UniProtKB/TrEMBL annotation:
GO cellular component terms given for this protein: endomembrane system; vacuole
Location within or outside the cell: Vacuole
Gene3D superfamilies hit by this protein: TolB, C-terminal domain
Major localization listed first in the record, in broad terms: other
Keyword Glycoprotein belongs to the record: yes
Family listed: Belongs to the strictosidine synthase family.
Domain named Strictosidine synthase conserved region: residues: 185-273
Annotated source species: Spirodela intermedia (Intermediate duckweed)
Protein name as catalogued: Strictosidine synthase conserved region domain-containing protein
A GO term for molecular function: hydrolase activity
Amino acid sequence: MGSGGVTRRALFSAMFLALALYCGLDPLKQGPMVEFPGFETYKVDLCPWEDLPPERDVEDRLEKAEIRFKGQVQGPESIAFDPQGRGPYTGVADGRVVFWDGKSWSGFAYTSPNRSEICDPKPSIFEYLKHEHVCGRPLGLRFHKKTGELYIADAYLGLLKVGTEGGLATPLATEAEGMPFKFTNDLDVDGEGNVYFTDTSTNYERRHFLQLTTASEPTGRLLKYDPRKKEASVLVRDLQFPNGVSLSKDESFVAFCEGSLGSRLSRHWLKGEKAGKTEVIGILPGFPDNVRTNEDGDFWVAIHARRGLYGHILGLHPRLRKFLMKLPIPAKYHYLLSIGGRLHAMAIKYSPEGKVLQVLEDRKGKVVKIISEVEEKDGKLWIGSVIMPFIAVYDLNLSS
């Protein structure tokens, strides 16, 4: 072998060694788990790839959704209308709940008593992450139909409520059974004022949701707040990224979804012979967010994006996932690979028994992507997104 061949081999070996050292040491701290040196990954209970729900929207009907309020709301995670039908109200990235009066947006409520100039509006939604724990981040919103009070699940500040005049919300619960909330996510409230809500993790905050999704850590909880006892209790524990919550029309059970690499829709019975029992009623084809019940008693599940084969394989192999999460590759790239490389969105309507009734998609993300909630009102779907700077509205008559 000539000297040229030896030189090329030496150069290749040096480059390989340098790459291995870079990946192993991560000197620029690009890896998604640098803040969690002792992290673990967990096995996900997945159905076979071929058994995932086959229903698709080949017409991409969500492309026909109308974009409203572009640039006026940043990250409108949840959408609510008060008992008089006014609104929408939505929680935004700067920590406020804002209200549309038919002409303009105005501040209605806020969750943090420590707001300052660091909470002022910013050009990019991702600029808020650093101070979310100070400014608050309202996620799930629900009005009590009788009292008109607004209940808020704030990712960092727990479960709160605010009166009909708005202002600073009052904390109701920040822990359950001695365990503080780390990531309060979504909620619903029944006619008696009991609040059902999720705490997504006991270790990861909302700003690390991509890391939590990949770790699939089973520390999430479904909880109930009793206004008479003024305390929260655990209904279901050991959940993987519990997220959206919605009571059935007759309030006999509460539906909730888990949004790890193995996504599913479940119901926890509150009344009847099955009271206290939990059962899976639907396998979800992607990463879900909020769940909302319509007037017919069916459930709309907002799906951030359909899960790809890469995400499915990672769910089956926690050791492989742990190895990949140690590499100097930012979490957002792992997520993009998990959803096929492109941000998109879908919404699925389920019956109370878990039957798929309707699927709406924007598979290329031309109009909507990473949607967080689908609220049905007067024949229209009001669509929120935790990262998009607008609300989308889809006319259901376009699907008839």
